[in-house]
Structure formats: C-alpha cells, structure tokens
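Ticket #4471: complex job returned nothing on first submit. Input attached below:
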Amino acid sequence: MSESVGGVSTPEGPTAGDGPTRDTERVERAAEETARDSGGALALLQTTAGRSLGLVVALILLCAVGMITAGDRFASYDNMMTILRLAATIGVVSIGMTFVITGGGIDLSVGAILALSSVWCTTLSTQTMAEDTHWSVMVVVALLVGAGCGLINGLLIAYGGVVPFIATLAMLASARGLAEIISNRRTQIVHVQAFKDSFNSEIFGIPLIVVIFVLVAAIGWVLLNRTTFGRRTLAVGGNPEAARLAGIHVKRHTVLLYVLLGLCCGIAALMLVSRTTTGSSTHGTLYELDAIAAVVIGGTLLSGGRGTIVGTVFGVLIFTTLTNVFTLNNRSISEQSLLKGLIIVAAVLLQQRLASRKGNT
Amino acid sequence: MSTTTKPGVLLQMTGIVKEFPGVRALGGVDLDVRAGEVHCLLGQNGAGKSTLIKVLAAAYQPDEGTIRWDGVETTLSSPMAAIKLGISTIYQELDLVADLTVAENVFLGHEISRGGISQRSRANRLVRDLLARLGHSEISPTRIVGELSPAGQQIVSMARALSHDTRLLILDEPSAVLDQGEVDNLFRVIRGLTAEGVAVVYISHRLEEIRKIGDRITVLKDGITVATGLAAADTPTSRLIQLMTGRSIEYVFPARPVEARDQGKPVLEVRDLALPGVFSGVDFTVHAGEIVGIAGLVGAGRSEILETVYGARRASTGSVSVDGKQLRRGSVPAAVAAGVGLAPEERKSQGLLLDQAVYRNITISSLGRFARGGFLNSAAERRRATELTTSLDVRPAGVVRAVRTLSGGNQQKVVLARWLLRDCRVLLLDEPTRGVDVGARSEIYALVRTLADSGVAVVVVSSEVEEVLGLSDRVLVIREGVVVHESAATEIDESRVLDLVMEGRVA
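Support reply: We reran it on our side without changes. The output follows.
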C-alpha cells in the first residue's frame, strides 16, 4: 500500500515517517549551501529524501568525518564554496549523463568533448573575435562544439547502429586528438577579460558557476520528471521496442539525448575554462568515469528506464566532498581512488539488493 | 492406463502436470515411447507439446506425475541428467553457436580434451564419423556453422545429439526449415536411427509427413492426452482433426451485429503488401465496425503482416491506407498518427513498460494530449487513465501501480486502454488472449466487439483457430505467406481451416 512507483513517492506510515522527517531536517542543514538561493531545491530534497536516504546518510557521514579531521578548515564558508565549485563542473556533465543512461545509453566521450570545447572556445581566432564583438562568442562556440559532438554520437548510435560504447569510445579518442591538433598541445590562456569577469562573478555571495550548476540541475529535474521529453526518455530506456511500437520516434529521441549531454559538456567546458582561465586538450580527463560513477551511485539504473537527478546531485556531492576531505588531510590521490572504487561497488551491490527485493514482492 | 511397464517401452510418462502462474500448461499427460519407433505428437498451438518436450529435456520440472525410463522410475533433475540418460532434443530454433565450427558445436559442453588442452584432430575425426552416419559426409567438421544452410545446421544439431549416445531423440517441427528433398533425407536419417533402436518423438503440423514417417500418434489438447497409440498410417484425418479440436472449454464469444452493416468505404485498405521471404501479395480491406481474423500456423507470416501494416517492418511493395490516405512505409509514428494501434504478440517485451505505472503505459502514445508546451499534467493523465481502467474493469484498481504486478488479462486491457485513449480508427490485435486466463478471455472478446461496434476496424491474429472464427466477421487463412482463403467467418469451420493450414487444401 505504501509502495512508491515511478516518480511518485508516498509517505511510509506514521512510525516510519518520523525517521525521514528528522533526517530531512538534518539534510537541509547540511546541504544548506546548495539549497541557498533556491527554494525549489529544498522542496525537491524533501520529496525525494526518503528514497535518497542512503545517499544523504553517506554525505552526512562524510561531512562529519571532515569536521572531525579538519575542523574549521572543512566547515568554513570558503571551503564549502570550494567543494561546490569543484562539484559544479562534473555535476553539469553528470546531469546530462543521467539522461543518456536513463535512455538506455552510455557516453564515454564526455571528458574529450569537454576538452575539445575548451580548446575551441579559447583559440586565438575565437578570442580575437570575442574581443572585437562580445565575450559571449566564446560561450556560443563552446556550446556548439559540445552539441555538435553529441549530435555525431547520437547519429552514429541511433541511425548508424553503432553500439553506444563503441561510438563514444571513438569520439573519446578523436575529440581529444582534434583538441590536441587545434591547440598544438599547448595550454591556451584566456585573455578576454570580460569573459573572466562575467564567469567569476558572484550572485549573493555564490559563485556564478555554482548557480549555473543549481540551474542545470533544476532544469534537468523538471525535464526528466515533468515533461513529455522526460517521459519518453524513461520509455525509450525501459523498453525501446515497446516505445517504438507505442509510436515514439525512438531514434530521434536517442539523438536528442546525446545532443543534450554534448550541450552539458559545452557548459562544463566554459565553467572549467573560467575556473582555470585556460583551455587545454587535457581538461576533463577521466570525467566520463566520475560522471558515470556519480550517476550510478545516485540510483539511476545503468540498464536504463529509471533515473534520478537528485540522486545524481548527491552522487556528485559525495565524490567531491570525499576529494575535499582527503585533500584537507593531505592524503594521497591513490587512497582517494581506492575509496571511490569501494564506494561504487558498495552502492551498486546495495542497489541490486533493493531491486531484487522489490522484484520478489 | 496400466502402470506396469511393457517390454520394449523405453519411456513412460504418466499423469504429467505442469502449472505456470495462472495457466495449467499440462493437466495430466500420458505418453509411452518404444525403442525403435517414431512417435508423433499432434496438437494445436497451445495444446502443450512444447511444454511436454521441455519436461522431457528437463528444462522444466513437472509438478506431478511419474517418468519411467527403461522401466525404472526417474526424476530428470537437470538438462545434463536428461542428456546422460540419452535424451536429446532438437528444438525448432536451433541452439547452435553460429561463429564456432561444426566440430566445436557438436562437442560444445563436453569438449574432447586431455588435461584441458583440446584435441581438435580427434574431435574432427569423431565428428566426421557422426556426419557419415547421418549420410552427410560432405559437411566438413571445420566449417563455420553460420555458413551452413538451415538443413545443414539441423544435421549438425543431430550430430550433436548422437555424440551423446542418444536413445531418445526429440525433433520439434524439424521440417519447418527444410525443402522437400531435405525432408526426404531427414526421413532417411530418422529411419537409420530407428533401425539402430533409437526412439524418436516427432512433432509436426504436416499430416502427410506424419503418415510417411510415423509409427504411432499421441494427440494432445489443452494439456491433456486425448488419444494415444493411434496408428499413424491409417487413422483417418477427420478423426485426428476431431481429436485436436474437440472442446473441453467453451469460450463465450459476443454476438455479431444482426443487421447487415452499411459497408461504405473501407477504413483500412491493404494492397498487394509483401515482405521478401515472409509473405507476398497480401490484399484485404476492413470496414468500420468489422473484425477481420487472420488464421495460420506459427511462422506462416501472420504477425509479420500486422507489423508491416503498422509500419514496424518496411514492406518491399504494396500500400496501406487508412481512410483513403496512404501511410508512409515503415513508419510507426505515421501509422499511429493516422489512427492505427497495435497490441503486439509479445505483450511484455513489445507492448509494455513493465516497471512503470499503469497510467504511464496508457498515456505513452498520447502524451501530447496531456502536455502544454512540453510540460505534462500528471493529474490529468491519472484522471483519464483511471476513467479508462474503471470502464475496462482493470483489477486491481489503482493507476500508479507498476504494470508488472497485473495479470496477463489485465495487462492486455492496459494495452487496449492505450489505444482507446487515442480513439483509434484501426486496431491490430496480435494474439490478444495469449497468457490470458479463461475468465478474462470472454471479457477481452466482448471489449473487442464493443470497440468494433463503435466504428473501429479491427484485425485479429491468433494461433487459436476457434478464437479467429468465433470473434471475427471475416476470416483470412494464411499458409506460408500467402492468403489461401477468404470468406465470412460463418462460412468456414475449424476443421476446414486446419485442413487449409496443414495440408494446403480442403479435404
């Protein structure tokens, strides 16, 4: 009677309801920074807190570890912003990835697309043009390059019949190769001051790129849960044959999903360019793994048909906070990687247990 | 039937019962097979033949009943146990690995090796002997199986069966993929095996073959043995067909409209439709309010015709028009936009999003109706879906539960509700009552008739001849991709249809 189906989550009865509510309050406090400036995000947390409870607990534990081991260095406003700024770039990519995976696909080329976008929008000619006209030229170039790569991925997969793994693997290799050719393997410094100023501005004390991340996540949530596009994505990922026989343009929809992810890569490229004030063919290395990991531990089914934007946001925050806590404690990258791997395995095992239990009832 | 085993009886099955959730696939089957005989299994689609051979191959465990092998009561605990006893099954869909060689396929699972190193030359030699025994020494053991013809692949399957010291060979419609010469050769091989004392269980729909190769016949109907030990050579066809069709359950079909309908222009016009290698020259029309049934054997091209009309397959020639407007070939969205709906054969894999809510399955083809600027109004979706499920009496009620939790009949109602919501002009139903229990069937039949009465043009495909005849106004009979008969449903009876699909002529 109290089972939750699809996007509808129902309260779990009077006794069980107490736990989630109290936890929700704690989450609200813990995630205040993310939610500040956006009342929608708070409401969003409340509705899905029950389902994402495991993620919430994990994040709280991580924060507790951070506060115990690093004290004020962790719990400061500046550090929170550092975490969020780091989370923003990979977060935007992960939101796009959530759509592709929910639609039954996978994209290994996101890091390479991001690198290509960052390089293309910082070439001498692009920057010269931006200085002559308007800094938004760089934005348009980055978004077009990202969406274009996504379009190629999507066309190859939907109409070329190439499996997503291979098509995007090819894109991974060739996009990064093209980025190296264009940049001549040199790091390109951004000298368009207006671009740097705009992207490094703050809104009510929140860095712009964090605001962009929150916006992308909010739009992503609405798109997945409240629109025909989202519903079709679930259908295409859940059962492509049934979706096709129901009259959905499955191929066209698949292309759109990859274009959407490409666009997200373009946005992430701009964030990274502004944060580092460089464009480089080495930007975004291994982002595909981080993004897929965040999506999967968030609770999106790798086989498609079920996706959660809130889960993905938590996944990203968990990984970024983990990195931050380790860095503050001067622990090595190797230890981080080891722990990340363990977290992914634990999360997926847990997910499978839950899924099989649901299947038995 | 006596429970003591007579000499010469290799296999004796008594009172075999196999139930699946909601379906009693076998309700007490008796079968005895003698060494050295060809025992034919006869029965309509759904009579339980496939389930029975899967019990024999130990792919299923029976719920009740005993199996005696060589007079000793046995339980077939696993497919490997069945193979060890000497039971080999050759399924309709050959289970070969296309990219491996003939020899590798024959010894798949029991590779010839010493200390983990495969002994290819020895395996090839053994396979060459087996193939010679089957009269096909021209097939090289090193050929890649995928390059062989269907007939050649079947020989490889048989070689694999013989590599296990087979004493009972089960052949499930072996002639379906063969031409006449190949069938003759298959019969030669079968006679060679029976001469060595191997027992053969032979399943086929073609009576002329059964007369030629069979010794005795067992007839199954609705999961029960209705006759056994009939002489294959001289039991009259009429008697066999009567055994296969004699009813134990009467379905209630809704009454056809009494007054002759004003025909007017046809809603659905199919002209000279063809799909290479599957069907050709299919030509029919359906008027508003009319139900047209398509009967034929599995593999005759019935489902493919529906899917091609629907645009899910691209026709090579011909046209499909709805209300006089020709549809774009090979486009499902075009067909749906023109008001065509399909309830596919494989409801679970082709029709439904099993893990999603009932209402989402109903509205998936009409999302635009519930959206403004792309934003969905879920409350309206649920409201409309609730109206539909209430009027169709989908149980349990509640449109937010996952479709997976519903029974087959209720799932079918959800699929129908999807097209009701679209007010479609043409409804294509492929096996509308497969996996639907007896009670819910009558409801589905009544629903289809109500839809037709409201002006929808309906096409029904079913393996069950009785269903096609009982539900339809007009009937097409398909044999090997060609329409061999068209008439009003009242002008043809079940045995004539069976004659047409099995022997190609009216007896």
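Residues 1-5 of chain B have pLDDT under 50 and may be disordered. Closing as resolved unless it happens again.
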